[in-house]
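The records we work with from here on pair a chain with its fold. Taken together, the C-alpha coordinates spell out the fold as the letters spell out the chain. To see the layout at work, look at the sequence and C-alpha coordinates printed below.
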Amino acid sequence: MLTTTNQTLVPGDWNAFFGFGTNILVNVLTLTGLLRFVLKMPDELVFGRILPAVGLTLCLSTCYYAWLAYDLARKPAGKMSARCLRSGVGTCSLWFS
Protein backbone atom coordinates (compact mmCIF):
# COMPACT_ATOMS: atom_id res chain seq x y z
CA MET A 1 0.00 0.00 0.00
CA LEU A 2 1.28 3.41 -0.96
CA THR A 3 1.23 5.94 1.86
CA THR A 4 2.02 9.62 1.60
CA THR A 5 2.37 12.37 4.12
CA ASN A 6 0.40 15.56 3.72
CA GLN A 7 2.09 18.89 4.19
CA THR A 8 0.20 21.91 5.44
CA LEU A 9 1.97 24.45 3.19
CA VAL A 10 3.63 23.68 -0.11
CA PRO A 11 5.20 26.07 -2.68
CA GLY A 12 2.10 26.03 -4.93
CA ASP A 13 0.01 27.46 -2.09
CA TRP A 14 1.59 30.90 -2.52
CA ASN A 15 0.67 30.88 -6.21
CA ALA A 16 -2.92 30.01 -5.32
CA PHE A 17 -3.00 32.66 -2.58
CA PHE A 18 -1.92 35.51 -4.85
CA GLY A 19 -4.01 34.25 -7.78
CA PHE A 20 -7.10 34.04 -5.56
CA GLY A 21 -6.40 37.49 -4.10
CA THR A 22 -5.99 39.04 -7.56
CA ASN A 23 -9.19 37.38 -8.74
CA ILE A 24 -11.12 38.74 -5.76
CA LEU A 25 -9.72 42.25 -6.29
CA VAL A 26 -10.65 42.32 -9.98
CA ASN A 27 -14.15 40.96 -9.29
CA VAL A 28 -14.84 43.49 -6.52
CA LEU A 29 -13.59 46.37 -8.69
CA THR A 30 -15.79 45.15 -11.55
CA LEU A 31 -18.76 44.86 -9.22
CA THR A 32 -18.17 48.38 -7.91
CA GLY A 33 -17.96 49.81 -11.42
CA LEU A 34 -21.11 48.03 -12.55
CA LEU A 35 -23.08 49.16 -9.53
CA ARG A 36 -21.96 52.79 -9.72
CA PHE A 37 -21.80 53.51 -13.45
CA VAL A 38 -24.11 51.01 -15.15
CA LEU A 39 -26.87 50.65 -12.56
CA LYS A 40 -26.35 54.23 -11.24
CA MET A 41 -26.64 53.19 -7.59
CA PRO A 42 -25.80 55.91 -5.06
CA ASP A 43 -22.34 55.83 -3.50
CA GLU A 44 -23.84 55.64 0.00
CA LEU A 45 -25.50 52.34 -0.88
CA VAL A 46 -22.53 50.86 -2.74
CA PHE A 47 -19.83 51.86 -0.25
CA GLY A 48 -21.98 51.89 2.87
CA ARG A 49 -23.96 48.65 2.51
CA ILE A 50 -23.03 46.44 -0.43
CA LEU A 51 -19.22 46.43 -0.39
CA PRO A 52 -18.93 45.95 3.41
CA ALA A 53 -21.28 42.97 3.13
CA VAL A 54 -19.25 41.56 0.22
CA GLY A 55 -16.03 42.01 2.21
CA LEU A 56 -17.47 40.27 5.27
CA THR A 57 -18.81 37.32 3.28
CA LEU A 58 -15.53 36.96 1.36
CA CYS A 59 -13.58 36.93 4.62
CA LEU A 60 -15.87 34.39 6.29
CA SER A 61 -16.10 32.12 3.25
CA THR A 62 -12.31 32.18 2.73
CA CYS A 63 -11.73 31.23 6.37
CA TYR A 64 -14.31 28.44 6.10
CA TYR A 65 -12.77 27.07 2.89
CA ALA A 66 -9.28 27.22 4.44
CA TRP A 67 -10.58 25.22 7.42
CA LEU A 68 -12.18 22.67 5.07
CA ALA A 69 -8.92 22.34 3.10
CA TYR A 70 -6.92 21.88 6.30
CA ASP A 71 -9.39 19.26 7.52
CA LEU A 72 -9.22 17.46 4.16
CA ALA A 73 -5.41 17.52 4.20
CA ARG A 74 -5.38 15.72 7.58
CA LYS A 75 -7.34 12.75 6.20
CA PRO A 76 -5.49 9.66 4.99
CA ALA A 77 -4.58 9.75 1.28
CA GLY A 78 -7.01 6.98 0.32
CA LYS A 79 -9.98 8.66 2.00
CA MET A 80 -9.95 11.91 -0.01
CA SER A 81 -13.04 12.70 -2.02
CA ALA A 82 -13.36 16.42 -2.65
CA ARG A 83 -15.27 18.76 -4.92
CA CYS A 84 -14.52 22.40 -5.58
CA LEU A 85 -17.30 24.92 -5.16
CA ARG A 86 -16.87 28.64 -5.78
CA SER A 87 -17.61 31.18 -3.11
CA GLY A 88 -17.81 34.93 -3.31
CA VAL A 89 -18.32 37.22 -6.27
CA GLY A 90 -17.60 35.51 -9.57
CA THR A 91 -17.20 37.02 -13.00
CA CYS A 92 -19.88 34.78 -14.50
CA SER A 93 -22.39 35.84 -11.89
CA LEU A 94 -21.54 39.49 -12.51
CA TRP A 95 -22.23 39.36 -16.24
CA PHE A 96 -24.98 36.77 -16.54
CA SER A 97 -27.18 37.39 -13.50
User: Anything to note?
Assistant: The first helix runs from residue 11 to 38. The helical segments are 11-38, 43-73, 91-96.
